[in-house]
Amino acid sequence: MGVYQIEWKSSALKELKRIDKAVVPRIVDTVQSLASNPRPSGVRKIKGASRLFRVRVANYRIVYEVVDEKLLIHIVRVRHRKDVYLDK
């Protein structure tokens, strides 16, 4: 398995800017670690979606898509756990 490339959706970057500044470095570190291991322990597959996963960082969830054929990870959403699954 090779190293995956990370791509952020623009909406996920906007969400990251609204998050508590004390948690942002932990979120960024977690996202960077996904490049070498896109399915670490503690990651959950999102039901009803073939390639979507979520990983927990404090009270926040990072929702991302893994495209194994292209060694690519799309960061789709970064939100508080109470808001992450709401469609907005």
Can you describe what's shown?
The chain contains two helices and five strands; from the N terminus they run E-H-H-E-E-E-E. With 88 residues, it is of the alpha+beta class. It has a single domain (5-80), classed as YaeB-like fold. The protein has a five-stranded mixed β-sheet. Strand 4 and strand 5 (72-80) form a beta hairpin. The protein is globular. The protein starts with a strand and ends in an 8-residue tail after the last strand.
What can be said about this structure in brief?
The protein has 88 residues and is an alpha+beta fold. It is built from 2 helices and 5 strands.
Count the DSSP helices.
2
Judged by helices, strands and strand pairing, the structural class is alpha+beta
CA radius of gyration:
12 Å
Please give the largest β-sheet.
Answer: 5 strands, mixed
CATH class term = Alpha Beta
Q: What topology, given as strand order, has the largest sheet?
A: 1-5-4-3-2
Mean pLDDT: 93
Overall tally of domains: 1
What is the number of beta strands?
A: 5
Overall 3D shape? globular
Helix content: 10-25%
- The CATH superfamily appears as RelE-like
Q: What string gives the helices and strands in order?
A: EHHEEEE
Low-confidence stretches: none
